[in-house]
Amino acid sequence: xxxxxxxxxxxxxxxxxxxxxxxxxxxxxxxxxxxxxxxxxxxxxxxxxxxxxxxxxxxxxxxxxxxxxxxxxxxxxxxxxxxxxxxxxxxxxxxxxxxxxxxxxxxxxxxxxxxxxxxxxxxxxxxxxxxxxxxxxxxxxxxxxxxxxxxxxxxxxxxxxxxxxxxxxxxxxxxxxxxxxxxxxxxxxxxxxxxxxxxxxxxxxxxxxxxxxxxxxxxxxxxxxxxxxxxxxxxxxxxxxxxxxxxxxxxxxxxxxxxxx
Length: 261
Known about the structure:
Layout: H1 4-27, E1 38-43, H2 45-51, H3 53-62, E2 67-72, H4 82-85, H5 87-94, E3 100-103, E4 112-127, H6 138-143, E5 145-149, H7 158-165, E6 171-176, H8 179-187, E7 193-196, H9 197-203, E8 209-212, E9 220-228, H10 235-245
Parallel strand pairs: 1-2, 1-3, 5-6
Antiparallel strand pairs: 3-9, 4-7, 4-8, 4-9
């Protein structure tokens, strides 16, 4: 029977052994065809739903033994600055909790290697046949009942800051913790939501949801894949980074910038 001290040491020793195995595996020659390594990628949930599905087929063809663990990255609670909101992601990278982070921030220190995957902006998502589609004005937008994606349940989001700058406001009738839940909710109600354009283009149709151009500028941002420069010397991680950053073939395509997406 293990002693109390042995029980206390079991978890940290197991963690240390796992790190040793990871170091040894990175020192071995990397062949994606035969490798059975597991990589950890961190990203917000709407980002994972956009960049990962088109690449899974290629991953299974070229590296059938590779395993991926997705970690949901969340911005710092209450932080309005994009540059500061994603600092925890950099801490996870440096602690090697994740191998690659994909974040909507351009404020990336020189010790990290980065590559832009794509640019993103927002559309107004709603069920097909929603009355807002007939009169998508700013006045009507403010009159609608809104859904906000918020892990904490905070109803105040970036759209509210944009509206406040114009002396306007809106009613947030519902908050949900993730973007797929948002599509399901607006498909069955008269709620509308500002959602990422590519996310809507890839996933909204199966819910009977459409996207329209917003009646006000909601800004745009770049999604960057980031990893420590010291880590990119690992041949396996460098291969995965290149695979993720390779231009994707347009199967569903991105939502065109027009009245309807």
